[in-house]
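For reproducibility, we list the full input for the 2'-deoxycytidine-5'-monophosphate complex.
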Amino acid sequence: MHPHIPFMIAVDGPAGAGKGTLAKHLAEVYDFAYLDTGLLYRAIAYEMLQNGYDLADVQLAEKIAGSLDPATFKESALRDEAVGGAASFISAYPGVRAALLKFQRHFAQHPPFFKKGAVLDGRDIGTVILPEAQAKIFVTADLEIRAKRRFKEMHERGIESRYEAIFEEMQSRDLRDEVRKISQLKPAEDALIIDTSHLNIEEVFLCAQDFVSEKLKTSL
Ligand code: DC
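The corresponding predicted structure, in tokenized form, follows.
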């Protein structure tokens, strides 16, 4: 690893594919800093919903994006499905993405606590935020499987939900994330693609670790 350039791992993919679990695991294994970039978009959406603001108010969304303080995030509230849907909506605004780009790049280039690297998970980390990332992974899975996983997770957390509603919400969120004009959800050309539909978590971890360890060796 170059002494002054942090090692960057980009983990992208649709909701429920397991990218958060994988990204957190990689950060732990390599002792790198971790940033869940979805939380940034969720925090903007949450503030708009809480205050009854119109989600279509682009200028307001941009203003909130410019003044986010991750230290104040209440993660459990941000995890709500409705917040995720609204986040997907406001994430299509170029001004919002531009405001968050700076924050994300700064985090990766100057990882907190003097860590030697950073893991960022999101939708456009490998393609737009950190095109120079040394390791890029795109995690995906069939929509039905992702919806089942999310349903199980909600049930385990004691949150009542309907499978059909989760399926439909995920389907429309995928579509919004894929068709928006900027930073569309798609793998970077040099990304390792892992389809987690029929893999267990250990298999996903191993596959990603093999890839990252190889990249780390060559960046020494
Ligand atoms: O990963 P998540 O479910 O927490 O993300 C919520 C929404 O935020 C998602 O539907 C799209 C948007 N998002 C984005 O556009 N770019 C990112 N890097 C992360 C999230």
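The chain is about 55% helix and 10% strand. The two ends are 4 Å apart (CA to CA). Both points were considered when choosing residues for closer inspection.
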